[in-house]
Amino acid sequence: MGCSPLVTANRRLIAAMETPPDSGAEERLDEVAALLWAMEHEHVTDPGACCRVREKLRSLEQKVDERRRSDVERARRSVESYGEGLEPV
Question: Domain limits of the chain?
């Protein structure tokens, strides 16, 4: 059985953080990765929370270099996949 989409997204952001060189986006990547971890483990995720995280990831995609962009994009797609399965509030 595979990981949940939120765990996958968290791991993609950690991979992006660890990709050299430092770009100044590491702190923001870490914040969003921590948010994803909390969403997965606290089970209080609603569609609005997924939407907000997705938009943060879209913004980060524009700010990181090409080597990190792929991981951030994959994280965003994982969050989108997770959000599709949530019931509207």
Answer: 5-84
